[in-house]
Task: structure prediction
Amino acid sequence: MLKEFKEFAMRGNVVDMAVGIIIGGAFGTIVKSLVNDVMMPPIGLLLGGVDFSDLFITLKEGAVAGPYATLASAQSAGAVTVSYGLFINAVISFLIVAFAVFLLIRGLNRMKREEEAPAAAPTDKECPHCLSRIPIKATRCAHCTSELAPA
Result:
């Protein structure tokens, strides 16, 4: 059983999948930072200084009564909140990742189509009598003068 597991784990597609998961996790961290640290501050500034990560609705106040200035203060007070600002950040992160994957797949498909381009139609054929190359529409071989069947 250990030998079978080793063979399974060392297959190329399993190793490729593991590498993809690791790279995907790192890419997710980069996208999260891009959204939270680069994109959302200017968007929040354009919307009047709103920090999306601090957009929430208090469902039940905690030990310390609200209003709470930030989501962190509400959570530390034990308040029950709906953190829709974090959801907005997550949606933007998803859209960025989905767009990046779309561009990757689009590029791979484009390369695949170029590889699968059909071969050009042949312009010559082989004479069955002398094995010389002759034009495909020829009805007589230029080398041995044998009559050929029409193409």
